[in-house]
Amino acid sequence: MNILLFGKGGQVGWELQRSLSVLGQVTALDFDSTEHCGDFSNPAGLADTVRALRPDIIVNAAAHTAVDKAESEPDLARTLNATAPGVLAQEAARLGAWLVHYSTDYVFDGSGTRPWVETDAPAPLSVYGRTKWEGEQLIAQSGAKHLILRTSWVYAARGGNFAKTMLRLAQERERLTVIDDQWGAPTGADLLADVTAHAIRHLQQCPQDAGLYHCVAAGETNPARRPHNSRLNTQKLQATFGLTLPHWQQGVARMLQEALA
Ligand code: NDP
Fold this sequence. Notes:
This protein is of the alpha/beta class. It has one domain: NAD(P)-binding Rossmann-like Domain (Rossmann fold, 3-Layer(aba) Sandwich). Helix content is 43%, strand content 14%. The protein has nine helices and eight strands. The chain has helices at residues 11-19, 43-53, 67-72, 74-95, 127-142, 162-172, 189-205, 235-241, 248-260, and strands at residues 2-6, 25-29, 57-60, 98-104, 145-151, 154-155, 187-188, 211-214. It has a six-stranded parallel sheet with strand order 2-1-3-4-5-8, sandwiched between helices. Bound molecules: NADPH dihydro-nicotinamide-adenine-dinucleotide phosphate. NADPH dihydro-nicotinamide-adenine-dinucleotide phosphate binds next to helix 1 and strand 4.
């Protein structure tokens, strides 16, 4: 199986390099890769890459994830989060390849108190959420075989994220002020990458299970990150792929041990 991974240097991309390696030959690219284009601001270049490498599976971990910055550069956010994944989906459809992609709870408006299910109607509040939703729609409309995992509050020992910012500030300051009115589950990049690998194997046997799934760690808590209700219901994913999602505290404890070692 030939796998083409985009965004290899991000939190999830880094872990995917590990988890996908047992499934086949992985070609992993970043925005500055030289041999093949991995730059999402150049969708035509991405199409050339797919045509040259003819992968069986494309996994896209690249995105414009800077939520605040996206408000002031909506065109770039749209290109990275919607146009480029849409082009990858078209190329996947032409080839008969799979496209695996990640999205976010930010497609929802964060209202209510029950965990969001896949059939709930998106109503994004931000440029980031809107462009990620557009990306989902372009993939769904492309006719490509696809898997979209919507997740939330991704962290890793490597890369920038809320947990690491808090660790740094805790060392620098006597007191920390944190918004605490938002609910969701911190999800390790390692967990997401492992679920992705399992799901890809499953889909080779059961292609009818393609589609959109919510994928977050179990349990819930409330650190700082909008929107208010970021809870995602994961019953569909656990039932379809036969997976158990661990409580988020397990992954955070492991990450803290790693980061503080
Ligand atoms: P990261 O920001 O860690 O990774 C995104 C990667 O995309 C980075 O390596 C970034 O490079 C890269 N990138 C930026 N611009 C370009 C470009 N022009 N061309 C190619 N690559 C580029 O994000 P995560 O790993 O956390 O996110 C993975 C997926 O999960 C994304 O689809 C994201 O939307 C989704 N998600 C993430 C959440 C989170 O809390 N982080 C929550 C919900 C969903 P560089 O770092 O050099 O800019």
